[in-house]
Amino acid sequence: LLAALLVLATPAATLLLGIFLQRELVEAPAAAGEGWQLFLAALAQGLLQHHLYGSFLCPLLALATYPCWLLLWNVLCWN
Fold it and tell me: Transmembrane stretches, by residue range (predicted)?
C-alpha cells in the first residue's frame, strides 16, 4: 500500500492524474490514450519553453533533486 502511494506521489503521476482530473472537471473526459498524449505534450511543451527561454537551470535542478525527493519519501514511508 505504501509503495502504491509513493508511486502516486511522484511528479509524473501527479501530472498525469491532474490532466485526467482537469478533463473531468471541464466535462470532457479523456480516454487513456488521449490522456497519455496530453501528458507527453505537457512534457514537450515544458522542455520547449525552457529551450526557448534559455533556462536550462530548472530542468537540471529537477533532474538532480528528483532522486533525493524519492529517497526522502522512501525514508518517510518505510521507517
Answer: 52-76
Asked whether 19 and 42 are in contact (CB, 8 A), the reply is yes
Q: How many domains does the chain have?
A: 1
Q: Which domain holds residue 63?
A: 2-77
Label each residue of the chain as H, E or C: CHHHHHHHCCHHHHHHHHHHHHHHHCCCCCCHHHHHHHHHHHHHHHHHHHHHHCCCHHHHHHHHHHHHHHHHHHHHHCC
Contact 39, 15 (CB under 8 A): yes
Neighbours of 57 (CB within 10 A): 9
pTM above threshold 0.90? no
Q: Which tens digits make up the pLDDT trace of 4-47? A: 777 777 777 888 888 899 898 998 888 989 989 988 888 888 77
